[in-house]
Each structure stands twice: as structure tokens, then as C-alpha cells.
Amino acid sequence: MRMPGRLGARLRALTGDRVRMAAGAVLFASALCTAALLAGAGGNAAQAFFPLPKATVQGMEPSATPAPGPLSGLIIAVDAGHGGYDGGAVGRVSGTPEKTLNLDVALRTARLLAAQGAQVVLTRTGDYALCDEDPPIRRKLQDMQRRAAIIMGGEADVVLSIHMNEYAGRSESGPQIFYREGCPAGRLLAGAVQGAMIDVLRPGTKRSALGGDYYILTLGVPSALVECGFLSNREEEALLLTGDYRQRVAQAIAEGVLRWAALPGERPAALAAVDRGGEN
Fold it and tell me: What is the DSSP string of 65-124?
């Protein structure tokens, strides 16, 4: 099935040997540059040297003048899961809330994607929820509706939602990527990101991308929910608490997007957006 409209045209322009070669070369150079900056300027180096797009009241506008690169022409929404009152999962040993790590990985990923030419839209840039204190509907639903409004208002072609995982048992580990159940377009994106995370992070548990039913994946564009690792696993939690490892996670996500953008051939269209107007 042919992918219609703007995204299909953009992706057809990105395919071929030239893009695959450029993607690998540019990401390798970006990784070396990032490593050098972090070594020379500490944990805030990436923030200092890769300025984000202009902030707005609701989120982030797409970059006005992104750097040219293999992702030029694509608008990618990066959603940092949870925030504010909603801390998400909690580190089993440290007690660190998921929301903090999600935001850090999202910002790192946004900078790397922008360095590859993408326009980036962020749903949040600080520790806050996207809902009112006492909304007329469930706080979580309003939060998700506003995330969706930012993503769709930014005309995003791709959605990446960043999360941390947890499980009752402590042995589960490894990154896990989800896509919208029954959506081939999302499955291609999630599969590329899952493969890149395995190659870059070398986790002990090598998982496959899975279909799931998540609000953020039902907006009508290729989407992936990225569970970066298990905070319920002592060893993986310790890794995720380090800036160096979170930078590797961000690099793996960006590499996955580059692999997806360089896939040859026609692409399936994303499933239509789900109408959630009647939910409360």
C-alpha cells in the first residue's frame, strides 16, 4: 500500500544508497562530537551546544532552520512521558521517578534528530503535567489530549514517546518498543528502533517490537513508544541513572529513526487517527 501525501513524498526523497551512506556517516560524526563535548564540558554539554527549537506556551515549534541532513523535511514529535504530579515508574533502588529520566532522554534525542536535519516538536520541556489542576475530565486524559494537540498542531510526521519500564519481578530487563496494534507503518518504525537499541546498547535481553494499545500511538502517523529499560531491575536502573548511558539510549533511538527513514520501497500508510472526542 502506498503511503499518501506529504510524508510519502518526504520519505521517498530520503531513500536510496546515498541516504543510507549519509545516515551512517552523519550519525557516527554526531556521536563523536557529542562524546567530545560531554568529555570537555560535563553533563550539560549537549544542552549548551545543541540549542533546541524556540519554545512556545504549549510545547515546541518545529525548528525554523534545522541543520541539513538525512532527516531533512521530516517533522518528528518527541514526547517525554509523564511529568508533574504523574511520576510514572519509580527506580526500585534509588526511588528516582521515571518522569525525570524520560525528559532527559527526550531532550538528548531531540538534539540528535535535529542534528540530522529533522524538525523537532517536544510535548514538554520541564517537570509538569499538561493538564489543569481540576479539569472537567480525568487529569490523565486531559494531559494526553493536550500532548496529542501539540503533536498534531506541529504537523508531525513521526511520533516517539519516551518511557521507562517496570515489572513486579526484578529480573526483566532490556529496551522494549511498542507500536499501534495492527498498524504496519508503526511496526516498521518500532522494528527499526528496537533493532538499533539492541545493536547500540547490547542488552542482556534482546526483545522484539510489540503491538499495544496506547493513546499516543493512535494519532494517525507512524509512532513508537520507547521503553528505554526497566527501573525495577537493579543493574539497568543503575545504568539509566548515568548520563553516559542515557546519551547512548538517545543515540540508539536516533539511529533507529535513520534506519527507518532509509528503508527502501513503498511504505504502508498509518492507520487513521482514533476519535476520542466522547471520552471523559
Answer: SPPPSTTTT-EEEEEE--BTTB--SB-TTT--BHHHHHHHHHHHHHHHHHHTT-EEEES-
